Amino acid sequence: REPLSKMSETEKRMQNAIWMDIAAFTSTYPELQRALKYALGALVSKRPQDPFSYLAEKLREANRQDQEEKLKQEEAAIKIQARGRGMRDRQRVKERKQDEKKHKAVVKIQARQRGVLGRSRVESIRTANIVWLRELYLKLSPNPQEEAQVGARDVFDYVRRDPDLVERLGLSKRLAALRPQFLPRVPGILEQLRPALSKGLDWVGFAELFGVDRAQADQADLHKAATKIQALQRRRRDADRSRTVEEARRHMEAAMADGALLGYVPAASP
Fold this sequence. Notes:
- With 270 residues, the chain is an all-alpha fold.
- It has helices at 9-28, 30-46, 51-140, 152-159, 163-169, 186-193, 203-209, 214-258; strands at residues 150-151, 200-201.
- 75% of the residues lie in helices and 1% in strands.
């Protein structure tokens, strides 16, 4: 490069334009700027006999290093992206497993609740049938207060749906016919009663004809006793409430008669 003092104005402008283009080009491509800096630094440091070949070799070497660095960066970016995808996939799988566990737990709880409700419903129906059967037994009994034994003939006629028996005993519509749950046992009941129509049946024997065991029959007695106790308690509460209201009314009337209301007169009832 010639000194600026020996160059014409045109050459100076051309020289400046070239350096401005190089500066703009290297600013656009920073890897070229790094390569030139590396190659020129090595050239100044070594001062080889053939500077052009040496500079070209160093530029190629800088280019290889730049390409290797880019490859390393790309590989690192790929690893980071793969790691990120792996973490997202594992998190997604974990969440899916947790959702499946929650779903299974919910299904199990719902199934358990349905089972409890189903068993409770079946138990309620069974209890209602036994209570109904107990009521029927008392209606067929000649002395319900003493719970005298029921005649096997009456049970036999009832199971055969004898209208004369229903009319004679004055059975209500609710008790006039067997409940559907007991209908499949009708042939077996008739077969058991036919050889012993002159005998009597207590509550347990009567219940066993319809597939109710002793424990369930005793439970029906307990249920009947509990129902009676609850009815007595309700009657007592109603009586106590009526008595309290009546006492309050009497006190009010007495106070009105004595003038103890201080001028207050209750409104007349319509």
